[in-house]
Amino acid sequence: MALDILYFAWVRERVGVGAERIDLPDGVSTPLDLALWLAARGGGYAEAFSDPSRLRCAVDQDIVPLTADLANAAEIAFFPPVTGG
Amino acid sequence: MISVRVQPEDFDVGAELAALEGQGGGAVASFTGIVRADDGVEAMTLEHYPGMTEKALTALADQAKGRWPLCGVTVLHRVGTLKAGDRIVFVGTASDHRAAALEACTFLIDRLKTDAPFWKKEHRSEGDNWVEARARDDAAARSWD
Description:
Chain A contains three helices and five strands, in the order βαβααβββ.
């Protein structure tokens, strides 16, 4: 199933793109699984995703834990803790 | 009345307050956030998650209306590059009495800082850096749980 991945702030800068579409890889069922799968691409992805504890994520525009279920997700976003206001 | 806006343009605090005063309540409270010139900050760039940002801010306004008897809520956040001294955020509430207006206003700005997808990048003459989230902001937001 196709999944849109969005990146924000320093995650976007390290990865080098703001968004991409992938087919959910076998064995990836949570945002944490996906972060580790992305880190394995190396380069900027490794820099962005090597320490998932620094990341937050939203699935279909709701903030959820990295251990949430990705089944049926259409969009996931990875970003650092938010700093608005 | 709930009004949520995310925009690069500046806003008129007087006009925002007047709109809240016209909601029929007896009390209006507001918070305006300004870009500080801390440690040589000359400007900052606000990035956000279009679509989710508006949804998150509307959810916060709905939560505030569920907790306090409010007749008006305005949440306005600027995005893009802002200079030191520029307005960045406005939260305004209207209610029959001051306690609800003041408490709801504090709730909204505390929760906005941890629940809405905005990120600040500071620009100084020596370089740029992404602002780190602060534990005391998390604590303030969780105090409303």
